[in-house]
Amino acid sequence: MQLTRDDLTIGVTIAGFFVLSIASLIACGHAFPAMHVWRSGVTSEAILGTAVMAVFLPAFVAGRFSFGYLVSFSLLSAVFGFVWLSFFSGFDYPHAIARWAMIAALAAAIVPLMFQTMPVWRPGLSEAAIKRIALLLLASSFAVLVADISYGANLGSPYSAVRNAVTRPALLNYLTGIMIGAVLPYLFTHFASRSQWMQAACVLLFALCFYPVVNNKTVLLLPIWLPFLFWLFGRFNPRLATVLAFLIPMIIGLAAFAVLGADKDYVVFSAINLRFLAIPSLALDQYADFFAHRELTRFCQISILRQVTACPYDELGPALGAIYRDGNFNASFLATEGIASVGLALAPVSALVCGLILSVGSMVSRHLSPRFIAVSSGIAVQAIMNVPLTTSLVSNGVALLFLLWWLTPERQAEASHQQQSAQRSNAIGVTA
Questions:
Q1: 143 Cβ contact partners less than 8 Å away, ≥ 6 residues apart
Q2: Which of 71, 146, 166, 213 falls 20 to 30 Å from 426 in CA-CA distance?
Q3: Arithmetic mean of pLDDT, 152-181
Q4: Which pLDDT tens digit goes with each residue over 204-246?
């Protein structure tokens, strides 16, 4: 296999991401010890142990872009951070076993995510038909927002208890999560990819209207994150853009930490480097410790199974929060469907199944442009990394997003423009 300049650029950029990830975790250890971010130094044992993660570089260099590529790199970031932190963890669990279990689980997940290429039949919907679907989605979003507001609204801090002050029916909570996680990002991408800038901007403003309902940081960041992804994936090779989507925010957070080191609130640094990058790794550390000493869930966190089987826990997030005192700690399928449900030994098997399920997203979106896939899944990928797979599929609308991708017709003009933009950005990509 002959490597192109793009391939070499991606490999070097991922290696740079690894180095800055370590710097970010070290800084987080100094800034957020209460979050159980372990203070870590640069030791030979940690460096050599974490260097094992370089074995995944060829897969990301050789793999073609897809939805699975996006999810796989997010998982790589989480497992890399966990492997580093595990060398300094003060928790009482078998650290070496946990490291290798998560490395094996990552490998098992990315095989179907990145290399499953089975074609699927698609309906031949017209452009007029997808426009009608978009109009229906807009009307549904408005109806859900009106229903939410009818139960009450708050403009409090996303860190305060006010976010739980209003009680709504479970179905309405599901619909709200679906609108924020899948429908609104899809609508923004639908309009932006057609250069309908006014409609795209209105979708972003409309998304902010959900903040008094959910008091969630995701809603505040959505109008920034989606345009950033739209620019990034229109300017760079999509594989390089995937890495830069992590690397650029990380650099911004580290710069804020260096410049505003005396600011004890660390507003920018905590939002990016802690919440966006470190939390998925910290979750693996805490779940490994929690379930090293307690009964496994055996998937009873899934609502349907909870109805027919006894479950030792009400909700996993609050259960861990009560022990570790750092908030409602939900986590990705590596932690919930993996560590919590089947234990470290069988976590790779669970990760393989989860990877197969999520590979459906790659199958139904392979006809779409990389930018359309990346932007419309901008919130969905974050959900996959921070909540159980079943929750992300249903409550956060990932399953609905897969359906919308399957229905969306291919746009040859956009695909051609994407290819030309990627070619023009080669020189800039090497510099990055």
A1: none
A2: 71
A3: 83
A4: 999 999 999 888 888 999 999 999 999 999 999 999 999 999 9
